[in-house]
Amino acid sequence: MPTVSEIKDAMVAGFIADKADGVDATIQFDLSGDNAGQFFLVIKDKTVEAHDGMAESANMTLSAATEDYYNVATGKMNAMQAFMSGKIKIKGDMGLAMKMQGMFKTG
After folding, report:
1. Closest by alpha carbon to 2, among 13, 42, 84?
2. Gyration radius from the chain CA atoms
3. Which of 14, 62, 78, 91 has the largest count of CB atoms under 10 Å?
4. 15-to-2, 48, 63, 87, 105 alpha-carbon distances in Å
5. To the nearest whole percent, how much of the chain has pLDDT over 90?
6. E-strand stretches of 1-107
7. Closest of 51, 25, 48 to residue 38, by C-alpha
8. Whole-angstrom Cα distance, residue 34 to residue 41?
9. What is the pLDDT of residues 77-100, one digit of tens each?
């Protein structure tokens, strides 16, 4: 199981800039359980910056067990199934949550 820092770094490495056209948003990740932690991504002008901790203001907050989010991020678990079963919780901009799936490589 990777650390929250490794998940954050993998998301930055897997960012697909062309899929983020017109996105100006902050996405907060609140991961719990083993290897718990928080980080946030700032997406603007087809770039992404990652920061540790909690954002002052986020457009969307994703909460999940670290293992569950890792499984979604690596393609081992379907994101929509994880959301529908309550393994991933989203607060805020649901449209951004849907768009987020295409902005990052999985697997």
Report:
1. 13
2. 12
3. 62
4. 18, 7, 20, 23, 7
5. 84
6. 25-32, 37-44, 47-52, 60-65, 88-92
7. 51
8. 21
9. 999 999 999 999 999 999 999 999
Give the closest residue to 60 by CA, choosing from 98, 13, 17. Answer: 98
Which fold is adopted by the domain 4-100?
Answer: Nonspecific Lipid-transfer Protein; Chain A (3.30.1050)
- Which single residue is written with the structure tokens 């946030």? 40
| Cα distances (angstroms) measured from residue 35 to each of 7, 91, 94 | 10, 22, 26
Length of the chain: 107
| Residues 15 and 50 sit within 8 Å (Cβ to Cβ) | no
Show the tokens assigned to 99: 């768009």
